Amino acid sequence: MKRNRLGRRGGLPRDAEQLLWLANGLADSSSRAEDHFWDQRLADAVDGLLSAEDEDALTTALDHLGSATTSVHAYDELADMIESRAEGALKSDAQHDVLLIAAPVMAWSRYRIPAAPIAAAVMANLRVHLKAHVLASGVKLALADFLFSPDQLPQGYCATADFATHLGKAAEGDGDLHIKTDNLPETAQFLSDNRYLLGAVMVPKGAPIFRWQEEDCSRDQALEQWRAQGGACVAPLLTGCAFEVVLPNAYFAASREADKTSRPYSIQASVAFLSTTLDAPAAGLRAVVAPFFERQVEEFRIGFTLRNQNEVVHGVVWPLLGAEDESSETLGQIEATLRACGITDILVLDNEFPMEYCDDCGAPMYPSPEGEAVHAELPEEQAEQMPKHLH
To answer: In terms of domain of life, where is this protein from (predicted)?
Structure first.
């Protein structure tokens, strides 16, 4: 998941101060023996805050380290510890490791991308192929019987730990977890978006969790097999959608990889959509790329027009993740992705656009060839068939 790149300053509560001291101690450690000292105490402190559902102390400490340029290593240590303890489930069984996992799917459609309960037969197939191609032998697995949208994922570290705990208990019996859908948030509809299959695994302490931890398999081989076999299992869940699976992994790592991979995928989906909807080949489109700022560059936005026209008919957001900034290779990646899709007319603007959104529908504003931030509008006859938000 995206980590904050800039935080807030201010007075710190005692629990947050304790986290800072422990994280800085671990970051400055000079030996494995000292690492163990700091690591164990930091883990205990984080576990206590997760159990107490004190989200504020966790995020306050992260924000403080994120805003201090001298504490980059300490920030990474604290973020990694919080994530690992949250996805490791709050259970006291010293004989087993429990891990929350995610199997992301990138999808696009002219219609609604489903987020819905998963039928028992599909659950059974997913379980078989996850155990065969992604997970190590002997792993106990619990799956949640729902395909989640990003809006429906656990919100925050404490909620993630609680969800992992419930799934972990189901994994003890190698069973699945039924998800009550009454209180799940509504799903915003986009042309392209991610969906998530969530599960928890249980293994004896120190045993391999994933196939690539075994000598006869690598991550690339596991992904190839999951694409071939797992993709067929996912297909009934995404009727009317084009989709691509992401390698299942630990929850936060898989979510970050999905965030990263979905950026070029959303451009590919947009070009395919515009080519069919407007009956225009990729070479007949133009892309306008510009950075959008708050206190720093937060994202690049790409406005699409028909070649030699100025009306923006569609847009894509390319958010900056982790340590990326405007001086990174992001712009080159965007241009390379556009060219790989067949777009050769690319206009890059130097304007510093503010993070503007439509007052009526909340959609991002996109750069036009004339150097203005505008609303993306499909021609009226095509717009009637599409979700409200196109980015």
So the answer is: Bacteria
Q: In what helix (H) or strand (E) does residue 290 lie, and over which residues does it extend?
A: strand 285-293
Token digits for 349?
């603007």
Name the DSSP class of 151.
Answer: G
Residue 357: domain span: 280-384
Q: Which residues contact 280 (CB under 8 A, 6 or more apart)?
A: 274, 306
Is 391 inside any structural domain?
no
SS3 120: helix
Name the residue among 106, 75, 326, 316 with its Cα closest to residue 194.
106
Residues 146 and 39 occupy one common structural domain: no
Query: Which two three-digit tokens encode residue 6?
Result: 């800039």
Q: For residue 182, give both structure tokens.
A: 């009454």
Q: Could you report the per-residue pLDDT of 160-201, keeping only the tens digit for each?
A: 999 999 999 999 999 999 999 988 998 888 899 999 999 999
Provide the CA 364 distance to its chain's centre, in angstroms: 19
> How many structural domains are present in the chain?
3
Last residue of a domain, one of 87, 117, 151: 87
DSSP string, 326-349: TTSSHHHHHHHHHHHTT--EEEE-
Q: What is the pLDDT of residues 12-39, one digit of tens each?
A: 889 999 999 999 999 999 999 999 999 9
Question: For residues 149 and 187, is the Cβ–Cβ distance under 8 A?
Answer: yes
Backbone angles phi, psi at 14, to 5 degrees: -60, -45
CA dist., res. 147 & res. 159, Å (int)? 18
pTM of the model: 0.89
Cβ–Cβ contacts within 10 Å for residue 388, how many? 11
